[in-house]
């Protein structure tokens, strides 16, 4: 398969709408699909098992249309709705009746959410038992990737050649390419083949506008707008990128009933990959082709980096992956050459490689705000050929080698960090 076609396939698969934070929504989707397959009104037991990273990212985030947080309410709503066809937008039509039924379900001993002892970053298992039969469904590696379905004694579906990691066939191929060649392929593509990416601008700009209009979440974006209006902060590119991206996260983490365009399994990654580019375009309007290809670069670099560090990790994917994609894209949009794009990536990793992920929650707006500002800073420095020296800490000669060093830290160096973060969060729950 040609690299251009592989890029389009990856983008169509990884840049998709999601309603609410991806981890609770994935649990709701798994529960809804399992209930649909179970097809029995009498339920004696519901058991939901999730990986530590799913648990971490779902513990403190708002669930759409509920004013509540957590995996319990999300899973119970999935059971109540029982419709897996809506995928990661399953919670879009939740009403008070659904919430009331979900609470009655959660109040009974038959409903339980637990952590699965697994090394998988993404793992969701739902077991529904009735007197007549039991139904089991498992999601692995991707938030909407069903790999196993069992009903009674019959295996209805089992994904063959299941991946042993979060990389995937397409990403393994992508990893073999130089970033320069990936960008060159995007440059050579007919922009009409990528115009579906524009939906992400409309969708994520809309949710950011909601976070600027009303103080949602902890109100990072909203407050920044007030200070800009008062003249305390300047109305410049950097502050607008911070403001827009934070406002989107404020709204999303509060559980607002609005979809976002996700990137590589994360709504906040989608906000961070897209909204700094929107901020740049608002200040310095681009033609549609340039804008579309910039979005493609941002998303594909995000996917490239996360194929190494994992979809979920101890590192903040918004900072080290999505914002790095945005910085590379902005450098390219500004006319940067391949060496300067390479430099923007190295500048990003030199700056915020230590940003940890302590779960999805309201304060993610602070992290995406910081990430957006560093994305602008790294791009502007790279355009002036101010680039981190090689063999400087974890920074190598190329962006590709630097990303591999980052992955080494994520997959080997921070395994214990991830466990400690989760222990702290459980102790405070």
From TrEMBL:
Please give the Pfam families that the UniProt record associates with this protein: SDH_alpha (PF03313)
Give me any GO biological process, just one.
Answer: L-cysteine catabolic process to pyruvate
The record places domain Serine dehydratase-like alpha subunit at 166-423
Q: Which GO terms describe its molecular function?
A: L-cysteine desulfhydrase activity
The Swiss-Prot or TrEMBL record describes its family as follows: Belongs to the UPF0597 family.
Q: What is this protein called?
A: UPF0597 protein GOQ27_09190
């Amino acid at each position: 398969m040609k690299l251009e076609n592989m890029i389009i396939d990856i983008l169509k698969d990884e840049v998709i709408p999601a309603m609410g934070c991806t981890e609770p929504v994935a649990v709701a989707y798994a529960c809804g699909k399992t209930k649909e397959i179970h097809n029995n009104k009498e339920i004696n037991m519901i058991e939901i098992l999730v990986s530590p990273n799913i648990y971490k990212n779902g513990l403190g985030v708002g669930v759409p249309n509920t004013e509540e947080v957590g995996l319990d309410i999300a899973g119970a709503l999935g059971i109540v709705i029982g419709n897996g066809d809506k995928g990661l937008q399953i919670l879009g039509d939740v009403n008070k009746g659904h919430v009331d039924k979900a609470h009655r379900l959660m109040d009974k001993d038959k409903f339980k959410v637990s952590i699965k002892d697994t090394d998988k970053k993404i793992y969701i298992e739902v077991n529904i038992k009735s007197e007549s039969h039991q139904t089991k469904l498992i999601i692995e590696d991707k938030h909407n990737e069903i790999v196993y379905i069992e009903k009674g004694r019959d295996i209805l579906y089992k994904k063959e050649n299941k991946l042993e990691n979060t990389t995937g066939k397409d990403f393994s191929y992508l990893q073999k390419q130089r970033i320069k060649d990936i960008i060159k392929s995007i440059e050579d593509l007919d922009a009409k083949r990528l115009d579906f990416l524009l939906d992400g601008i409309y969708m994520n700009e809309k949710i950011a506008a909601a976070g600027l209009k009303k103080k949602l979440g902890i109100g990072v974006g909203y407050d920044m707008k007030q200070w800009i209006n008062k003249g305390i902060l300047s109305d410049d590119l950097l502050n607008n990128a911070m403001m827009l991206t934070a406002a989107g996260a404020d709204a999303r983490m509060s559980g607002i009933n609005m979809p976002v365009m996700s990137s590589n399994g994360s709504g906040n990654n989608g906000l961070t990959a897209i909204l700094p580019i929107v901020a740049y375009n608002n200040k310095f309007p681009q033609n549609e082709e340039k804008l579309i290809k910039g979005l493609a670069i941002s998303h594909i670099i995000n996917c490239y980096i996360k194929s190494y560090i994992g979809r979920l990790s101890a590192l903040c994917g918004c900072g080290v992956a999505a914002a790095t994609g945005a910085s590379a894209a902005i450098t390219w949009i500004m006319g940067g050459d391949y060496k300067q794009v390479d430099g923007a990536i190295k500048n990003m990793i030199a700056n915020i490689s230590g940003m940890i992920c302590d779960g999805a929650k309201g304060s993610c707006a602070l992290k995406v705000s910081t990430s957006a500002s560093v994305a602008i800073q790294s791009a502007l420095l790279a355009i002036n050929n101010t680039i981190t020296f090689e063999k400087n800490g974890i920074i190598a000669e190329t962006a590709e080698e630097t990303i591999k060093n980052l992955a080494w830290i994520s997959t080997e160096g921070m395994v214990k960090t991830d466990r400690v973060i989760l222990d702290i969060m459980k102790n405070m729950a």
